[in-house]
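Lab notebook, bench 4. Continuing the backlog of folding jobs that were queued last week. Each job is logged with the same field layout so the records can be merged later without manual cleanup. Today's entry covers Protein arginine N-methyltransferase 2, a 329-residue chain. Filled in by technician R.K.

JOB TYPE: sequence-to-structure
TARGET: Protein arginine N-methyltransferase 2
LENGTH: 329
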Amino acid sequence: MDDCQLLCEAARSGDVDKLKSLIDSGADVTSFDSDGLTPLMHAAKHGQSAAVKALLDAGAPWNALSPSQLSAGDFAMESGHQEAFDILLNAGIQAELILGTIARKANENGGGDSNEQYLEDRVSFSEDKLMDSESKAVMMAWEKPLMEAHAKAVCSGGGHVLNIGFGMGLVDTAIQQYNPVSHTIVEAHPEVYERMLRTGWGKKDNVNIIFGRWQDVVSELGTYDGIFFDTYGEYYEDLREFHQYLPQLLKPEGIYSFFNGLCGGNAFFHVVYCNLVSLELKNLGYSTQLIPLPVKDCLGEEVWEGVRHRYWQLDTYYLPVCQPIEDEE
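JOB STATUS: finished
OUTPUT FIELD FOLLOWS
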């Protein structure tokens, strides 16, 4: 029996002493067995929380994927092993916090703009989707109920509303139904912007369109009762950067929300990022409520015809509603 098999056997049985002995003798905790599973996946699947911790401490990757695209956290979640799940969740959050710090330092040292290529790309519109030149979906009609729920959240206080990223106009159409005092839209893609003007968005009395990347026009923005953020071609670092501006953009009683597509292809990774963004918003002074919305019925096979990347594959969408945390007297 090779070292990987021995590690997996010890992980399944929860024999931590055996695990540590194998690790000390040089066994590779990152290895996959013949089924494509790591020792950490076996420990998680069998709820062996002490073994999970020992393997993580020895450098086992929390985010390795099996052939069926499941991580150790997914196995713990599916098997209902809460303690093992919590250990893996914390490991994922801590790892991503560290990676975020590294990414910010890289950007400070001259890192490039993540969405520049998309802004130079051609996009195509159809009745039910907005696509880039590589047939990747920018926005799709199945999101309409989600966007209506986001609009309801950010418009619940009335007043002045800001949306970053127009796309197909789903959320902005929904926002208009609440007749806000002012409705500011920031859109960076030239073809999307031109289509907005062609379809009359520039003629609406309460609409103010600002063309450009939000990073470049943020100084032109005011303060708002509701803010929604949904950009394409950007990454978590861009969302994190936008959050740094919330204290100057969102009024004290305001509500903020964003399209929560973070790791929409993997249930455990999605939970990690939901927790990560909630933690980082809390550090900025905002509470985050995640409202579950079932989406399984919206996503039949026909929805993805002609689309290269299925950016959402989960049964539930967690809609974030973020508000400033009131100072305790």
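OBSERVATION: Strands lie at 123-125, 129-132, 137-140, 160-164, 182-187, 207-211, 224-229, 250-258, 286-294, 316-324.
SIGNED: R.K.
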